Prior knowledge:
The chain is an alpha+beta fold and 251 residues long. It is built from 10 helices and 6 strands.
Amino acid sequence: MDFITLMPIEAYSMPSSTFVPDDSHVMVINIARDMEWDDFGGGWSDRRTKTLQARTNAYKQWLINFCKPTATPTETGITFMENGVCHTAANRILIVSDGDTNVRLAPGDEYAILFFGKYGLGISDFKKKLKDSFNKTAKSYFMPNCILDDVLKRIDNSWEEEWSAWRLVAEKECNLDVRRILNKNVSGGFSNAERHMKDFIAKRENVYAQYKGNPSMVQKKIGELIYSSSEAYLNQLTPGFITEAEKTILS
């Protein structure tokens, strides 16, 4: 039985304003430039300026079984603007690799994560696709189970980047000084934020499960959830972390 092949791949961003103003389109390509995942937008031949956002070594045969090179990577489980965008599709492709990398530095990524999550909505289906494609690949190539375990663990730990994305959006859109808030009680403040973030992620998954197949309702309900969850978090911060006056401004 042959060993799995490591294939260097890269993710690039290009200027765009599809999801929010001045965000970016993201696509993935191998360094041999003969396999690419255009992630519902422009590919390597696109004339827009490209910025390298990530580089990792993909498990080649597993990645191809998970999602063949394509302009519309629906095999990843992403339906554009229903449970993800190009950023989330790119992260699903990049995760089939030996490194914990993603496109978090691409312009607008924090908004994509806040709305759809780092790996898009429908996480249980995503994990099943990874497991099924891994098992299919393992029939022909030597792949220890620890490889799959490591990849799945990255998904479970992705709440930390969700929290970072929420912090960036809060600072940009509301001028909320998150660092000052946490510094008032580092351990207590962070524990509270962790609980709130994990609760929000679970509720967001429930919204998708309820309205899957109806993109407009998914977007509407998640927008409402973001607002209500933000209000609930502000209530938890008042008093102790922020004043009533600050809460009124932020609301």
